[in-house]
Amino acid sequence: MTRTLLAALCVVSTLTAWGAADESTLIANGEYIARAGDCVACHTVKGGKPFAGGLPLETPIGMIYSTNITPDVNTGIGSYTFEDFDNAVRRGIRKDGSTLYPAMPFPSYARTSDDDMRALYAYFKAGVPAVDQPNKDVDIPWPLSMRWPLASWRWMFASRSTGPSPAGVEGQLVNRGKYLVEGLGHCGTCHTPRAITLQEKALTNAEGAGFLSGGAPIEGWIAKDLRGSPVSGLGRWNEQDIVQFLKTGRNNQTAVFGGMSEVVTHSLQHLSDADLTAIARYLKTLPATGGGETVAVGDAGNSEEKLHNLQIDSLGARVYADNCMACHRSDGAGYNQTFPGLAKNSVLNDPAADSVVRIILIGHTVPATKAAVTEYTMPAFGWRLSNEDVAAVTTFIRQSWGNSGGTVTAQEVGRLRKTISEAQMRGAGMSVHDGAVDEQFSKK
Q1: Residue range 190-245, pLDDT digits in tens
Q2: Which residue, among 58, 390, 6, has the nearest Cα to 216 in the 3D structure?
Q3: Domain assignment of residue 391, yes or no
């Protein structure tokens, strides 16, 4: 009798240990998925508690604020069942049955697998500290604030299609990248142009070549073309260039800036090398929009020769020589992994120059990552360069060393300058480092 009881206790103890181990693994998987989905980016205000919401999100119809997705019962998702959670993330349906604003990328998250959703739910229910922080009401004027028309928008534009899986080992890697880019990574949310009704013009490459062909300005930054154009896209980058950029925020061609800095800092640098390679492999399958493969030529080496010999014959060249050449060099090549090259830089060849102008005005810090621990800061020049100076130097670098970007006017610079605070113009707050968020994940 005693032996039977002891044996039964051993079995129960073993099963309990297995169950705890399984739950721990599920939560760890969920944390990784949350990283891949970059949930922290929208659901954490700078300096606030991770996932407690409150981040202002500017939309064409007004300001909305991200919600508290910690497991707090009163203000977060502590009372959500898995079905409630799944409906919100993959279908855009709130617990009360109304539709979420499409600032939540549920059309992309719809492609998340059932297994990944269950892991994500386990993480947010048991792996994230509860925070009692009430949600903020939207700041959208009536009648645009009414939610019931959003149900029609969701019915028309949100999709659950995942597409066929390519066969073979190579196909599996590409398909994994496709899953991460089109689904969890929701890259199209920023990098795909939108229609007047605010939906992405294509949610997948199968829906059109507009997918990942570059988006509209977001908080003053242009989300670049991620397709195969050698002029404005990733055509001149090889697979390793892409992996290195995603992992460190820099490569021999360029360095991260704007909102993408936070994506690298809080999400992409934490993905496995296998997943980063899968993303790169998939992106390299996307042809250039329109099929153009001609590399920009600009003025070839003419600017380099003149700058090297200090033959300064334009305002743009003078501003460049006085302020930029020490770091970016007379040949525009910069210094690998430190000061990004400007020669044949796809950002400079983008039809819109907003990102370039903004960096000149307010500067930027390339963030430190686990694989590249040094931050590099470009100072702000907006406080001492006039609109004419900024327009001239932007035009100069967009049309030198093989670049073929358009001309920028002082009026365009003035328009962007009005959106920037005096503190930003003097270089304040250039770093994207958020200690609270990093501390949360470093404990795992």
Answers
A1: 999 999 888 999 999 999 999 999 988 888 899 999 999 999 999 999 999 999 99
A2: 58
A3: yes
